Automatic annotation (TrEMBL):
This is HD-GYP domain-containing protein. Keywords: Hydrolase. InterPro entries: HD/PDEase_dom, HD_GYP_dom. It comes from the Bacteria. SMART domains: HDc. One of its GO terms (molecular function) is hydrolase activity. It is an enzyme of class 3 (hydrolase). Its EC number is 3.1.4.-. Residues 225-413 form the HD-GYP domain. PANTHER family: 3'3'-CGAMP-SPECIFIC PHOSPHODIESTERASE 1 (PTHR43155:SF1), CYCLIC DI-GMP PHOSPHODIESTERASE PA4108-RELATED (PTHR43155).
Length: 413
């Protein structure tokens, strides 16, 4: 099995932007060092715009091809260390430093392109050495210097104001911080590209015209195999689960159960691994859900439950960016469907819910029941199966899948 690495990175980038949209702490990320008010900033296209600006500047600086590729991937992933920011309360300077360090540690585990970890680590360093890690001047990787400026420019850019009404302010602010926050050569390149109207038109339209970024992106013709994809899925599962204090092992628990049941049922090893990956990624859409809802220590309101339900939709939207994993996408995004048609998000009935989806759905419920939650202690296995059997009797979930899970656990216990 061969999967396009670039498509995976673009999917992760979308997940990161969705995560920042759901964050109520956005306004603390860079305000302290940049004086940019972020409380009203929209983050839907943050990674995409930052990457566009970075690539335009990098190409104007005539960076070599390998550096452009590193810049491209690092720009898309530059905030990977901030995806679970809501689980902690930091001051601005502390948060900036810690999310850079965390980002580096995450990127180090990528099966390829792990050498961009230093770019991620230093992407908030100021050129004069006043940044969180106090690196200065040419000691900061050129890619980090570019991303730092592109990141802050994107944060200053406002979606609800036409570009022609704000570009002068942005250009002036960048110029004023030349040789202090920013490398003067990076600023010079930025000022050069922003003279052309097309740059600002592209920033306005990049959110719904993917070809704008596609047209300037370097060709990343690297494919990865299923084992390498699983390593990336495992990295993402840790980010997903760390967003909430009460789901620290949830995705990995479901992944393990799904694999074990799949082995018990007799699936091929490749299919079992795919089920394990589906378990790791099934809740990636929760990055778009505010932690205040995920961790609420009380019953959810109707509105809050509607927001929670949307996570499966976002799981599908994110994973559909990746070609060649249609089965994993279907299984991962259908784990809340019910046989009687009362599930979500598509309201599928039994005829359209595959055996794999039924297994993953039962594993998800079981894992959730035995885990601690804000509103209750985790249940015993017997208590969990009493609930599962009741749901099966009521036509919600598959009784065969429940029995397959029980038999699997009995076998390995």
């Amino acid at each position: 099995m061969s999967i396009c690495f670039e498509k995976i990175i673009r999917a992760i980038s979308l997940a990161l932007d969705l995560s920042q949209i759901s964050s109520v702490e956005n306004s603390t990320i860079v305000e302290e060092i940049s004086n940019i008010p972020l409380s009203t900033h929209k983050f839907l296209n943050h990674s995409k715009r930052t990457t566009y600006i970075s690539l335009k500047v990098g190409k104007r600086l005539n960076l070599p091809e390998e550096s452009i590729k590193n810049l491209y991937i690092a720009s898309l992933l530059h905030d990977i260390g901030a995806a679970n920011s809501l689980s902690k309360s930091h001051t601005s300077s502390t948060f900036i430093k810690e999310h850079c360090i965390l980002g580096e540690s995450i990127i180090k585990n990528l099966p390829i392109y792990s050498d961009i970890s230093k770019i991620i680590l230093y992407h908030h360093e100021n050129f004069n050495g006043s940044g969180p890690l106090h690196l200065k001047n040419k000691d900061i990787p050129i890619e980090s210097r570019i991303i730092h400026m592109a990141d802050l420019v994107e944060l200053l850019y406002k979606d609800n104001i036409p570009a022609y009404k704000q570009h002068s302010k942005i250009i002036s602010w960048v110029s004023e911080n030349s040789n202090t926050i920013f490398d003067k050569n990076v600023v010079k390149a930025f000022l050069s590209i922003t003279k052309n109207d097309i740059f600002w038109f592209d920033l306005e339209n990049i959110g719904f015209m993917d070809f704008i970024l596609d047209n300037i992106s370097p060709e990343i013709d690297t494919n990865i195999d299923l084992d390498q994809f699983e390593k990336i899925a495992y990295i993402l599962s840790k980010i997903i689960d760390n967003k909430s204090n009460f789901t620290a092992e949830h995705s990995r628990g479901i992944s393990k159960l799904s694999y074990q049941v799949s082995k018990y049922v007799g699936y091929s090893e490749e299919k079992c691994i795919k089920m394990r990956i589906a378990g790791l990624l099934h809740d990636i859409g929760k990055l778009a859900i505010p932690t205040s809802i995920l961790d609420k220590n009380a019953s959810l309101t109707d509105d809050e439950f509607s927001i929670i339900k949307s996570h499966v939709y976002y799981t599908k939207i994110i994973l559909e960016r990746i070609d060649g994993i249609d089965d994993i996408i279907y299984w991962a995004s259908s784990h809340h469907e019910k046989l009687n048609g009362k599930g979500y998000p598509m309201g599928l009935t039994s005829k359209k819910i595959s055996e794999e989806c039924r297994i993953l759905g039962v594993c998800d419920i079981y894992q959730a029941l035995i885990e601690n939650r804000p509103y209750r202690k985790g249940l015993s296995s017997n208590q969990a199966f009493n609930i599962l059997n009741g749901m099966a009797d009521d036509g919600f979930i598959c009784p065969i899948a429940v029995e397959q899970l029980k038999s699997t656990l009995d076998k390995i216990s």
